[in-house]
Every structure is written in C-alpha cells, then in structure tokens.
Amino acid sequence: MTPKTVARTVIVGGGAGGIGAAGAAKAADPQGEVIVYTEYEDAAYSPCGIPYVHGREIPDFDRLFLAGKEAYVEAGIDIHYNSRVTSVDLARRQVAVEGEGDVAWDRLVIASGFDYADPGVPGSDLEGLYYVKNIRRAMEWDKVIDHVKVAVVIEASPLGLEMVTALAHRGIETHLVDPHPWALSEAADPDIAEPVQESWAEMGVKMHFNTRLEEFLGDSNGKVRGVRTSEGELPADLVVICTKKTPRNDLAAAAGIQIGSTGGIIVDERMATSAAGVWAAGDCIEVPHGVSNVPLQGLSGSHAYSQGKVAGTNAAGGNRKYQPVYVPWGMVAGKWMIGGVSFGETLATALGIPFVLGKAQGISRARYYPDMKKILVKLLAEPGTGRLIGAQLVGGEGIKERADFLAMCVKVGITLEDLAFMENVYSPPIGALNEPIALAAQNGLANLKG
Amino acid sequence: MTPKTVARTVIVGGGAGGIGAAGAAKAADPQGEVIVYTEYEDAAYSPCGIPYVHGREIPDFDRLFLAGKEAYVEAGIDIHYNSRVTSVDLARRQVAVEGEGDVAWDRLVIASGFDYADPGVPGSDLEGLYYVKNIRRAMEWDKVIDHVKVAVVIEASPLGLEMVTALAHRGIETHLVDPHPWALSEAADPDIAEPVQESWAEMGVKMHFNTRLEEFLGDSNGKVRGVRTSEGELPADLVVICTKKTPRNDLAAAAGIQIGSTGGIIVDERMATSAAGVWAAGDCIEVPHGVSNVPLQGLSGSHAYSQGKVAGTNAAGGNRKYQPVYVPWGMVAGKWMIGGVSFGETLATALGIPFVLGKAQGISRARYYPDMKKILVKLLAEPGTGRLIGAQLVGGEGIKERADFLAMCVKVGITLEDLAFMENVYSPPIGALNEPIALAAQNGLANLKG
Q1: Same domain, A138 and A194
Q2: Are A140 and A182 members of one domain?
Q3: Cα distance from A300 to chain B (closest Cα, Å)?
Q4: Which one, of B353, B327, B336, B117, lies nearest residue B241 by Cα?
Q5: Domain interval for residue B225
Q6: Which of A64, A369, A424 sits opposite B404 (nearest CB)?
Q7: Do the beta carbons of residue B12 and residue B109 sit within 8 Å?
Q8: Are B177 and B218 members of one domain?
C-alpha cells in the first residue's frame, strides 16, 4: 500500500469533473497530495469536440487535447492512466486500484462520469456499434467512417444531434431513429426543433421519429448490417448509439453511498456525499433544478467542471457552495443553433408548471446587414409575477450568449417587464434596433396582462 | 390653419425618436390624428447603415429604407416631408411650418435630433467637407468617394471609427485626427482601443492622436485640399467631420422649454418636458445615467426609438415610464468588435467613482474550434458590495449580446460573485468551457477580497 505523509486527495475519474476537482484541491491545499485515477490513456482532452472532428469542422483529433501530461506533473497532480478503481472502502478510507492494490485517501472525490444507457435490444455485441466517448477509439472510428456509406444514429439526444449533423456533413447517408415525436424532445419544443429538422432534410438526413429500436442486425461475420425498428428495417454500415447519459454510480452504490432518483449520487450544496470525507462531481451526481427543484443529472462539461472545482475545494479544506442550476444549453444542429434555459413549453407542461408565453421572431443584426440571421425567442414566465422561468431559442448566431443571459435572469428573478424594456446595443453589423429577447418579452407582457 | 376634429399629436422630426413616437401615439389613441414633420425627403431609413454602404459591406443604399412611404399612410400616420418647423407657440398650442403656416396641436412631441458639433475652425464653408447624416446626400457623397485618394476623418467618435474603417475598406488612404490620446477615449479604455488601432495600422490607416484640428485648407476653387492641425498639415480630397452629436434644442429653447446642462431638453421619466402637453425624445433630450445620475445625451438609435415610444404613448394619453439608462454600446471598429456598459476605468476615474476591477482574456468558442475569437472582458464593481457598475469588452464575436447582458446586471444589482459562478452554455462551436465574463468576475472577486 502506497505510504502517505501529507493529506491525500484521491479522485476517481479524469474527465471535466475529476480534472476540475484536482486543480481546485491543489489550489486549496498546495501541500496536499492529489492523485487522479482514470481508466483511459489520457486526461484533459475535450470529448465534446469529437463529433466536430468526425464532421470535419475540426481538422484533427490532436487539437482536442487541452494540455500535455507534463502540465499535470508540473502542477503537482499525479494522474494514473489506464487505472481502474474497482472498489471504495469507506471504513478503511481506501480504494482498490487494479494493478496497484489498495490506496489510502484522506479525502475522496468520485467523478466517475456516465455510460450511455443500454439500448436493451438484441445484437448489442455486434461489431460496428459506436459509442462516442474515448478519443483513442474515436480516432480509430474516424478511419472506419471513411468507408461508411449508410449510418444510423440511435436517439436524438444532444450527442445524437451533433453526430447526425457530422455524418451528414461527411456526405454519409444518415438515418436518425428516435422513439419521440421530434428531435431533442426532452429539452426542446417542437417549434425549436422544426427548423433543425428542415435543415437536416435539406442535407439529406432521413428522420425516423416515433420509431423504436428493436434489434441490431448482424451479418455472418458478426458485423452490424442494419437495425430493426418498430417501423421496419434500415440497412447500415455503422450505428452510432447516442442514448441518454446514465450516471456511473456502481462504485458509490457498492460502498453504500446514497443514490438519488435519477441514479446520480446525492450531494449537498458543498458536493459532499452521504459518506464523510467523500465528495462527488460531474455526470455521476444529481443536482436540483433551481425552478422546479427536480433533481437533474448529466449536464454539460461546464457544469461538471464547476462541480469538480467545488468538490475539490471543499475536499481539500475549503468552503464553496454550488448553487441550484438553471441549465442554459445550446448547440449547433443542422444549419441552426438551438438553445434554452430551464425548460420550454413541452417540459413545463409535462411537469405541471403553469406559465405565460412570450414569443417573437427577431434578427441578429440590422435587417439590411449581410449575414443577418433570424432568431426565434420563447420566454416562459410565472403567471402573476411575470418572473422568467424558462426560455427556448433557435437562430443563426448569438444563441449561447442569450441563453447565458436568460439563465441569470431566471436565477435572480428578472421579469418579462424588465426584459420588455431592456436596453440593447444597436449597431448594424452586430445588433438590431430591437433585441429579439425584448420583442418576445413585450409579447409575453401582453399575454400576462391579457 | 389646418382644422382639426380629433385630438392631434404633432411630432417634430422623422428619425428614430419621431417615428417611434408616431407609432406609439397611434397605438395609444387609434382615433387620434398623428402628423410628423421632417425636413428631409424621407423618414424611416437607417442612417446608422450609411458608413457600411460607404465601406461596401452593404451593397446599396436602397437596403437602408425600412418601409415605403405608403406604409405610414396605411398606418394612419401623416408624414410631411421637406417640412421645416420654424417655431413652437406654447400658449396657442401651434407650430409654424414653412410653407404650411400655423398648425395646431393638442400634444406635441419634439424629436428634433442632433447636429454635429461645429469644429469651430476656419474653412468650414469649403466644398469637400462631409457630415454623414442624410441618406440622399450620402448617395451623392458615395460617388465622390469613388474618386477620393486621401481622406481625413475628424474625431474618433463612434461615427468616426465607423467611417475610418469604411474608408480604409474602400482602399482610400485614411487619416484620423483626434485631440485625445486614443480612439473613442470618452467611452473606451486604452486597452480596449489598442487592438482596434493595431488593426487600423494593418489596414494602412494613419492615426494622429493628441492632435487638434486648426483649419480646413482650400484651393482656389473653394474645395478642400487638406487640414492644418496642431501637428502639421495633412492633404485630403475629402474631410469627414465626425464631431460630437449636439442636441438640436433651438425650437425648444426659443419656446422657453427647459434645457439641461448637456444642451439636451430636460424631460421627466414620462418624457414630458417643462411645458404642459409637450414631450420630447431622442438625441435632442438628456436622460440620467443609472449609476452616476449624470445626464447623458446623444445615445443610440435604439434609445431614441424607445424614448420615442414612451413619449408617443404618454402624449396620446397612455402611461409609460422610461428608466434610467446603463448604456450598453457596441460596434465594429477595424477588425474588432468593441463595447461596454455604463463606464470603463477611464471614465469612472474621471467621474471620481471608486471601483474594483476584474479583467480576463477569454475565448468565444472551444479553443480548438475554427474561427474561435479572443474576448477581453473588464468588469468594474462597487468596492464592498461587489455590485457591477460598468464593463468594457473587445473581441471577435458575442460583444453585443454580452453588453446587453451586463447592462441588465448593472441595472438589477448583480455582483461579481454572481457572475464568477454563473452557469454558461458549453458547446465547442458556440461557447467555451469557461465564459469570459465569469473569468473576469473571478479575477475581480479576488481583487475585491484582496
């Protein structure tokens, strides 16, 4: 067993949560030891960039690496690569590491990430099923994609939207199979998804909504040749599985750490788990939604990184709180950018949350300026008070920045009235006379009063 | 004298303030009569677009027209073109209109706009001095510009920055003469202006800061041939005068309506002037700055339009309030976008307003994504509370949206702490892991506590 002389923080996982925690732990206790265990060959690359290399927007995978391994050595963070943690012993305060034996910790941060949900259909052992996650595997898959003529993407999740767009860019006949009635139906309203779907149609994508996957079909060599769905068979050289991210909670659950309704590890606002000295962050935990208080799991890399920083800081003796999330999100899908905050009409309705809607089509620059893009803004407000509780956006530019803004608005209680009369930059190449958010708020205000 | 049967709103001025007032007055009192007097041949075009047609970003002037004249007729707004209002009689509630005689009003909105400050040097009657304002004149000047080899732009005002950039794009040897030490020094800090100036240097622009204009020099035909400055003479075929916008207050002042320290007409929050039944909006008025309470004049077209709507609504019997301004601004200058809110270090220091600074260089997309742009964010916060009081930005995209966001933050009292831990969209093509505003706030928070 590795001897230790100073307080040791052990971190399970080398993704955004784990790396955020490692840096923060080192900052909070520079004398302390920080060891990160990752199953993979690398840490600190951006898995979020993989679909864009496949789509050829980014020319090569090397660009996705954030820092060389030596940067962590220099920062005093000891990353053990290809190292699987197989169990956590709370009583003895040690983890078992494959090939290393037991390693003692004074503080433990679990940032074990996610797995894609098992599609739960026959044929899942066939060759040609691609789960987008690890960069080394992605490099190998990219060469496979060179020879693919027909691909099927399973589920219109955020990753599914990115992969459909990437494969279509790559000139591959791409089919999307999803059991829901429109793309990204758990986050986006149908009027937000509609232009995305129209643009996919223009790009030659074949969409199969309201369609369940029933089987991966193989040939005599054990290679995938297609999928069977509730609506018939589709041939495919490649199947990309973009099911929901489920929390990897096995280590924590086996150790007796409390798990929540989403399957995510339960943490308090300091990212402390139910076990003393054990913290958690990233896709393996659940956190409360600021408006509905519903636990959420599987947010963005930015959330994982922020949670990691809170967990690492507190593990190493600091004191930081993580706040409820309002979940600004955004992405490129087809020829559009889509995004939102908190929830849209569909999800609010499903959750039984009453709302008043304000909706407007605006523009990103002066009407007459080249490359002006349309932006559709939908704002959801609490009846009575008019406080913003959610938003949805689709447009050609400025979606991310508006989603960030609106997330802060929801958090601090900004109303439709505040937004209806907001000041905005007006300059022909970068902003229109009327900010689209203000136009939507003006319409919402009329509905609120009407 | 024109007879009247219903309540008549007379509006002096057909710019953003006047047109905003006309539409709002008609909406608030659809039966009422609305007459707009403008000195020009047109109303409802975007003068803000003129520099971009000169710069050839926009292919023609026709695109700058917002609506045909028939649209106003249909909306029941009676615009009198080429009509100069020469006096206002408060006692008799009438205006004198050149060629029309006296016209009675029940409500009057003064939206008489601005003039460029007189440079106050000899030679101002020479041919070849261009004041950018009217679209018909701009069309004529554009043909002149085709033959210009050397141009001098007088003063690095917002319009000056646009015209320097436009003329340089047009391939003209362009000189900028400004008495201050850097570009846009009344609004932008030197570190915000610096990249703009570097990019102008790359574009071949010759900058003459700390340089006073002393004379327009003419040839024997009365045409400008150059300028004399405190630092010597510069030859020029064209001189573009981009001095400060001064309020056109002559009609109001002659009628005895109160004028403020900026020269702008004094209005209350309902845009009412000191005279009963008389309202005002746009570049001819002054409004209080939300943080410092200092009166401001000559804001954007968006501000004028909003003020016009408040004035028009209230004139026609409605009840709306205009709120203190925090002045988000933004523009393209050289190869950069610059912007801000409220004030930067230079102006805050000049006003004697104490502040804590947070500054960071961030990025607009994932580091590895094509066309990622750097963004420098500076946040000014109130010592003690950490409340945001101002911001400055320079970068390659997302400046307008961030300035809008930060203006709302200043208005509602958001702190550096709120911004340091804000949630943000992370998606490689549209947003980085760490929002640049959050990075600046984190640095500011360290300074606030340090």
Answers
A1: yes
A2: yes
A3: 7
A4: B117
A5: 129-243
A6: A424
A7: yes
A8: yes
pLDDT of B199-219, one tens digit each? 999 999 999 999 999 999 999
Pick from B414, B433, B437: CB nearest A412: B414
What percent of chain B is helix, strand and coil (3-state, nearest 5)?
Answer: 30, 30, 40
The predicted pLDDT at position A69 comes to: 87
Q: Are residues A278 and A181 in the same domain?
A: no
The two tokens of residue B76 are 């029941």
Q: What is the value of pTM for the model shown?
A: 0.95
**Does residue A362 lie in a domain region?**
yes
Query: What is the CA A107 to chain-centroid distance, rounded?
Result: 27
Q: Do B197 and B262 fall within a single domain?
A: no
Q: Is the distance from CB of A18 to CB of A35 less than 8 angstroms?
A: no
User: Quick one: how far is CA A253 from the chain centroid?
Assistant: 23
Answer whether A23's CB lies under 8 Å from A108's CB: no
Residue that is last in its domain, among A214, A243, A272: A243
**B306 and B267 in one domain?**
yes
Say how far apart CA A343 and CA A435 lie, in whole Å: 21
The verdict on A67 touching B (C-beta cutoff 8 Å) is: no
Choosing among B424, B434, B437, B442, which should be mutated to test the A contact, i.e. which has the most A CBs within 10 A?
B424
Q: Which residues of chain A have pLDDT under 50?
A: none
Same domain for B407 and B439, yes or no, is yes
- B196 and B254 share one domain: no
For residue A124, being part of any structural domain is answered with: no
Residues of A in contact with B369 (CB under 8 A): 49, 52, 57-58
Could you say which residues of chain B have pLDDT below 70? 1-4
Q: Does B434 touch chain A (CB under 8 A)?
A: yes
A449 touches chain B (CB under 8 A): no
- CA-CA distance, B324 to B334, in Å (whole number)? 31
Pairing of strands A265-266, A245-247: unpaired
CB-nearest to B427 from A327, A331, A411 is: A331
Q: What is the CATH number of the domain that holds A410?
A: 3.50.50.60
Q: Is residue B72 part of a domain?
A: yes
Q: Are B272 and B103 in contact (CB under 8 A)?
A: no
Count of domains for chain B: 3
Preferred mutation among A54, A375, A427, A442 to probe B, highest tally of B CBs within 10 A: A427
**Of A243, A270, A293, which closes a domain?**
A243
| Tokens at B225, concatenated | 């041939």
SS3 sequence of B2-45: CCCCCCEEEEECCCHHHHHHHHHHHHHCCCCEEEEECCCCCCCE
In B, minimum Cα distance to A426 occurs at B302
Assigned domain for A202 exists: yes
CB of B140 within 8 Å of a chain A CB? The answer is: no
Query: So what's the pLDDT on residue A332?
Result: 97
Interface ipTM above 0.90? yes
